[in-house]
Amino acid sequence: DKCWMFMTIAVRILDMSLRDEFGFHHILWVYSGRRGIHAWVCDASARCMNDETRSSVAEYLQIVRGGSEKSRKVMFGKFLHPFVKRMFDEVIKPNFEELIVNNQ
Q1: Alpha helices in the chain (DSSP H)
Q2: Are 14 and 83 in contact (CB under 8 A)?
Q3: How far apart are alpha carbons 95 and 104 in whole angstroms?
Q4: Measured on CA atoms in the order 27, 31, 32, 38, is the torsion positive or negative?
Q5: What distance in Å separates the CA atoms of residue 6 and residue 99, rounded to the nearest whole number?
Q6: How far apart are the first and last CA of the chain?
Q7: pLDDT in tens, 4-39
Q8: Confidence (pTM)
Q9: Whole-angstrom Cα distance, residue 100 to residue 104?
Q10: Residue 27's closest CA among 17, 11, 15?
Q11: How far apart are CA 41 and CA 98, in angstroms?
């Protein structure tokens, strides 16, 4: 149950970002089992993107960076991007107590 709550919050944040930051409208969320949740963006503008542009969108959405050579780190600079601040205030903060404090 707890895992689904985290995924629900992640989908809400990513969905809002894809819609508000990139202007996409036709998004299908798919759970693939072992590989997690995926967004299928069906807008014509998204379908026409080349690999470099798609990678740029994905990189823009990354806050957690890691890999086999690095430990996972949350990458916040000195100032939060206005969208990250908005997502914290509107999505994460209202759910924090229930998800993190009460469900431990």
Answers
A1: 2-20, 44-47, 51-60, 82-87, 93-96
A2: no
A3: 14
A4: positive
A5: 8
A6: 12
A7: 888 888 899 899 999 999 999 999 999 887 778 899
A8: 0.76
A9: 6
A10: 15
A11: 31
